[in-house]
Write a structure and sequence with these properties.
The chain is an alpha/beta fold. About 60% of the residues lie in helices and about 10% in strands. The chain has 23 helices and 17 strands. GO terms for molecular function: transmembrane transporter activity.
Length: about 725
């Protein structure tokens, strides 16, 4: 009997172990097959939701009075399902394994498998399970989209959405400010930090490069770790490095801080629009996303006004010796960080997107946030007694196995963090690759072309306009150039400033240049003998092919680099000034601030028109029409030959193109499902910043050479983008997927 008992115990242990092994094997095979699921997850995007509006008696939808499926409290079946979560995996009887299976004895119903061997049978079963799971998941996602829209209708539009509107508006405003900061400080920074032309060009482009990287990274992370959390991280990075950039002295450190600041703010646009759209019902979405775009214009106005008010006040500065200098343009950089800091403070009071929670199977968290939205809105409308009737929200089934493995992995906290970070990176890249899947390929390619064409023209002309105005000012300045030839001056003290002059073949004997400023002065083939230069401040001043003998330079900024091919004999340099110095008398920069202010203000009519008519005319017509009209405005630049004409056409171009930008951002939100929305927006916005880099570089290179090439490039890009935009699908009546 003892032998029989041991035999039965051993046999039971063997069978139990075999069952466990088979379950693990089945699970691993399912994982391998499941990697192909992502290619199918968005197939539902091509299906219409119209049937959900027409079939009021459909048993799958709980929001209807006759058959509510347990979503609302007045449903008799709701109580039965309160403890059930659709995203929780229960016990599956099919996982049970027949004892004789591991003894080579087939199941009684295995005859249907024909001549398939054991492995083929298991794989066939896995594919059947996969197909059933995928079909159920698509159905769940369709039900979620329809039900989520119904819940937003019940929550209403009110205080909560308007509060979120202003909070996210600050983040969008910070993005608008970031675009203008470097352009406004560059005229002062180039003199303060002695920047060469290549360094100036790199400083102008570095922000776009940072924003390009930031848009891609933060957009992808927003779909994996949450909209609110990602936006807080990105804005924090922007604020910290914007603050540091106002204090650093060297060019390389300033360049790095502006790059990091750009990386941080790059996440603003992709996340803000995705975040806000998921709190808006269908009939409010286009209009209020267009109103949100107005904060980008407010950011430009804020930056222009602050530059105009702060930078010309050169008295707002201090210095510690000659090594550390803090001029007014650094005060401006510091002030420009305020919108980002304010956005961070306000965003901490707002919740995560409930749609993001539902996409990740977090039913309870999403329900609490939607109830908060409902109660906030109806309480503000004077109806606090109105009850939130939703008790259950359909959450799509998600494969959590790999995340559970990450969370329970062995190793140090650093190792677990590294594994989790690597896994998130892989998921982000997989999400990016899915944008070119069969369902989304044409939408992505069309939107990429439209974003690129619009950004190439808009940012290219945004750089070209002020550069062209500066070029016209420079031409006018050179027209007043004074030339002195063969003059001989002895025993004379120059106590007046020299500006915009050329002195050729002159002789200066025992002369004194004391306490004066030299601006745009050039000495050629001249002789200086026994002269004194004391307390001299110079800008664009040089000595070329001159002979300088027995001359003293005391407390000047005339360095050896300013003496080109000169013969220096027995000269003395004492207490030379180190570093570059600002030109406090240049009024041309103030005109640039004014032009940028007017250009930002001109966006207001375009914003208002697009917000009022985006639902009536449609997104597609607004984008296409605005881009084609903008192309016409750019073509008229060929006829502009004065500063006033360029300023007027700049305002017209900015006002018209604003409507196209608003429509593009609304359509981008509506074309992509929630699980890929921020990723798609980030990829397209990164492409936008790449186009901005190309447009700015190409257009700036033709300033002073020809106007025709930049204008024709802009015209061609806008026409192509406008024609492609007219082929986009109309998304006005589309429920967010």
């Amino acid at each position: 009997m003892d032998d029989d008992g041991r035999y039965r115990d051993s046999r039971s242990d063997f069978i139990r172990g075999a069952k466990d092994i088979a379950k693990v094997a089945k699970k691993q095979v399912g994982k391998k097959v499941g990697r192909g699921m992502d290619k199918m997850t968005d197939e539902y995007t091509r299906r219409s939701y119209k049937r959900f509006e027409e079939e009021d008696d459909d048993d799958d939808y709980a929001g209807m009075p006759s058959n509510d499926g347990g979503y609302y409290r007045n449903d008799s079946r709701a109580n039965d399902d309160e403890g059930h979560s659709d995203s929780t995996e229960g016990h599956d009887e099919d996982d049970e394994i027949y004892e004789g299976e591991y003894q080579g004895i087939p199941r009684a119903d295995s005859g249907k498998a024909g001549g398939m061997d054991g492995v083929a049978a298991v794989e066939a079963q896995q594919f059947r399970d996969l197909s059933a799971f995928e079909g159920e998941r698509r159905k769940d996602q369709e039900e979620l989209a329809q039900q989520y829209e119904t819940i937003l209708q019940e929550c209403g539009h009110g205080k909560f959405q308007w509060t979120l509107y202003f909070v996210l508006g600050l983040a969008l405003m910070a993005d608008g400010v970031e675009i203008f900061v470097v352009g406004f400080v560059l005229p002062s920074a180039e003199k303060d930090m002695c920047l060469s032309e290549p360094n100036k060009g790199m400083l102008g482009l570095i922000v776009y490069l940072g924003m390009m990287v930031g848009a891609f990274v933060w957009g992808g992370l927003a779909d994996r770790i949450g909209r609110r959390q990602t936006l807080l991280i990105s804005l924090s990075i922007n604020s910290v490095f914007a603050f540091f950039s106002s204090f650093v002295q060297g060019y390389v450190s300033f360049l790095f801080c502006r790059l990091a600041s750009g990386v941080g703010i790059g996440g603003s646009i992709p996340i803000v629009f995705s975040y806000y759209s998921e709190f808006l019902a269908q009939e409010k979405r286009g209009e209020h996303l267009s109103w949100l775009c107005m904060f980008w214009m407010i950011g430009g106005i804020y930056a222009s006004a602050m530059a105009w008010a702060i930078i010309p006040h050169y008295g707002w500065s201090f210095q510690m010796g000659s090594a550390y200098q803090f001029h007014s343009w650094r005060v401006f950089v510091l002030v420009c960080a305020f919108p980002s800091v304010a956005a961070i403070s306000a965003l901490t009071t707002m919740p995560e997107s409930p749609r993001f929670y539902l996409e990740n199977g977090k039913h309870d968290e999403a329900w609490m946030i939607l109830k908060q939205v409902h109660d906030t809105n109806w309480r503000a409308k004077g109806q606090p007694e109105k009850v939130f009737t939703v008790t259950h929200i359909k959450a799509p089934k998600t494969a959590e196995d790999e995340f559970i493995e990450i969370q329970t992995a062995t190793g140090t906290p650093v190792q677990r963090w590294a594994v989790r970070s690597l896994r998130i990176c892989k998921l982000v890249l997989r999400n990016v690759a899915s944008l070119l899947s069969a369902e989304l390929r044409f939408a992505t390619l069309f939107m990429a072309l439209i974003w690129f064409c619009m950004a190439f023209s808009y940012y290219g002309l945004s750089v070209w306009f002020p550069d062209m105005i500066k070029h016209l000012q420079h031409e006018e300045y050179e027209s007043r150039l004074k030339t002195f030839h063969g003059e001989r001056v002895e025993n004379f003290q120059f106590n007046f400033s020299l500006e915009n002059q050329i002195h050729r073949e002159g002789e200066y004997i025992r002369d004194k240049f004391v306490g004066i400023e030299m601006k745009s002065v050039k000495f050629e083939d001249s002789l200086f003998e026994d002269c004194l230069f004391e307390d001299i401040r110079s800008t664009d001043t040089m000595f070329e092919n001159c002979t300088i003998r027995s001359t003293i330079f005391y407390n000047t900024d005339l360095w050896k680099e300013k003496f080109i091919d000169c013969r220096m004999e027995n000269n003395t340099f004492e207490h030379n000034k180190h570093g570059c110095h600002l030109d406090t008398t240049d009024e041309n920069d103030v005109l640039v601030y004014l032009v940028s202010f007017l250009g930002s203000l001109a966006v207001l009519p375009g914003n208002i028109i697009s917000a009022l008519f985006v639902e009536k005319i449609g997104r597609v017509r607004i984008i296409g029409g605005s881009m084609l009209i903008s192309a016409g405005c750019s073509f008229f630049l060929l006829l502009s030959f004065s500063q006033s004409a360029i300023i007027a056409l700049q305002c017209l171009f900015c006002g018209v193109s604003a409507a196209a930008w608003n429509g593009i951002e609304v359509v981008t939100v509506e074309l992509y499902p929630a699980s890929k929305r921020a990723t798609a927006f980030g990829v397209l916005n990164a492409l936008c910043k790449l186009a901005a880099v190309l447009g700015s570089s190409i257009f700036a290179s033709f300033v002073g050479i020809t106007k025709a090439i930049p204008i024709l490039l802009s015209f061609t890009a806008l026409v192509c983008g406008g024609l492609v935009a007219l082929r986009l699908p109309d998304t006005r009546q589309k429920i967010l997927q």
